[in-house]
């Protein structure tokens, strides 16, 4: 069709005339993009018509977050990671602790390989959760996809999820069309996602046509949840109260593999390659796309001078209990893995399980007025 | 075997129906006029710059509607949009502009301010007078579609031309990216500074991209003539002053708008005899002109016949904060309703005659006299 027309038209201007002003910017894209790279890539587009300017728009429009170094770029389809390699490899390396273009990523969704994780003290660990995302082959991604594509993704997802049974038997709630009662219940369960308001997402075009073809599926037990067409094609979440991360991870792996099998039968498997693992919209979610975490009470440890250092050494990150960009309440923190790319799902959840176990022991020691100096871990 | 015309049309309809937006909850001019047949006809077309129908209607899809105001729901990405998407834009124009049919009517342009009479208001009532319009530079894409290079070119062309203004129009340009904090504060105090758009009507149309690159404000030393560069249009041109001398405001307006300045440099404004001056939003076609006053009408505004009177006079009221604001202290922003199908001189005269009449009504009410209102709508 006509998708490359606009970019061809722009080529009549010079690189200098088009190059974005990034002088006030602090994000991974702004750090990585040079005039040379822009010159090399600006004339290219993926087969679906996504261009360099499309990739970087969100980073141009959002100079930076005061506390977090944002990524500043997104992809519109799986091919972007190849076509715009010269930029994205640098961003990926920077964001994922030195990951090189020649590195290989490990995928391991065999929950039996996780050691322990069923005995986190529920007096401290209030809830456990593992989430990831998946992109469906044959479709472009949320920054780029059309209404027709998004609806096709929804249709496929509904079919796949409707065929699940046993502990995975559940129901789909389209955002447009749920009753008030359903909506209130989903909000009460903390399942409902809103139209994105963050300019990081809206400037990337991810809220277009809202709420068309967006929805939420969850099982009857409310322990397995899938978001359709939010920031990624699918976001898959396994969760439950208490500290049995082993069970959460088992359900996560089993559910994901059941879903993938159904998509593959329709020739729409998940986007994956051995260098970048699972391909998602934001380069920060490459690899496993996995965030495994707990809500844990650490009032004493969190005020300890070495808290940040302990987290860094354990390869963990903290957030408030409202999720990213929120503050902790009552000494309860959301603790999860910091890594996504270059280690497997099992490895990342293992870090969470081992690290949280250690931190709870530290908390108990501090409660007794004892020192934790001897417990500070080595860098993992 | 080649398909016949109707079969082919069927196929297109089928492919396009997967893409057709869900407009069931929508109330805007685009949603009222778009049909599956029109969509099928236009969905694979693009302007020479590559702007598409989906892009033009995106803002109307993303913003179902304002409860009280029927928004337009679409924009133009360039001058050619009005031609290429005519099958949709023309009925939208007809609905928005009171029956004006672009296919068989001509729009009169008249910027001879010497034709205005009675343009001096009673300053016990009229606090300020203002005339604004917009102008687009032919050959460059409009804010929803322009690239950074095009936007910077608009800025260059306009700033260069304005440097040629002399006498009481001598002034200077303040680029949004380079103004000092002191300059910024002064512009805020003068109520000249415009912000990055936050209204989703504008952001969903892509008008805030790359902010604040290429944006700025020019004003004359006397602060009575002001130009916004690259906000919602290439330029917004404003003549204003305190008090009731609308004649002088319009004189200055016409003087400052002389196209000669950009013509000398090889450019011209977007204009044609069907649609008058071409701007981003179809609601601003024709003259793009809003002439208005801030006027004290505490008694009249409380009269139940106020809205009818305004209607008859082809005027609209707004609060003193502009569109979508409330009136404060009985002071209203009163301006012309129409933009297309009447000339600048006609519209300004309409405002002058109308406001004079409103003041007469207010004076009558002050004296306890009644006002007579035509039951039959005034002919214009």
Automatic annotation (TrEMBL), chain A:
Transmembrane segments: none annotated. Residues 10-97 form the Phosphagen kinase N-terminal domain. PROSITE patterns: PHOSPHAGEN_KINASE (PS00112), PHOSPHAGEN_KINASE_C (PS51510), PHOSPHAGEN_KINASE_N (PS51509). It comes from the Eukaryota. It is an enzyme of class 2 (transferase). Residues 124-366 form the Phosphagen kinase C-terminal domain. The keyword Nucleotide-binding applies. This is creatine kinase. It comes from Monopterus albus (Swamp eel).
Automatic annotation (TrEMBL), chain B:
It is found in: Mitochondrion inner membrane. Keywords: ATP-binding, Kinase, Membrane, Mitochondrion, Mitochondrion inner membrane, Nucleotide-binding, Transferase, Transit peptide. Residues 125-365 form the Phosphagen kinase C-terminal domain. GO terms for cellular component: mitochondrial inner membrane. Pfam families: ATP-gua_Ptrans, ATP-gua_PtransN. GO terms for biological process: phosphocreatine biosynthetic process. The keyword Protease does not apply. One of its GO terms (molecular function) is ATP binding. ATP binds at residues 128-132, 191, 236, 290-294, 318-323. Its EC number is 2.7.3.2. SUPFAM superfamilies: Glutamine synthetase/guanido kinase, Guanido kinase N-terminal domain. Residues 12-98 form the Phosphagen kinase N-terminal domain. The keyword ATP-binding applies. It is an enzyme of class 2 (transferase). It is a peripheral membrane protein. Reversibly catalyzes the transfer of phosphate between ATP and various phosphogens (e.g. creatine phosphate). Creatine kinase isoenzymes play a central role in energy transduction in tissues with large, fluctuating energy demands, such as skeletal muscle, heart, brain and spermatozoa. Belongs to the ATP:guanido phosphotransferase family. Exists as an octamer composed of four MTCK homodimers. This is Creatine kinase U-type, mitochondrial. It comes from Monopterus albus. The lineage of its organism: Eukaryota, Metazoa, Chordata, Craniata, Vertebrata.
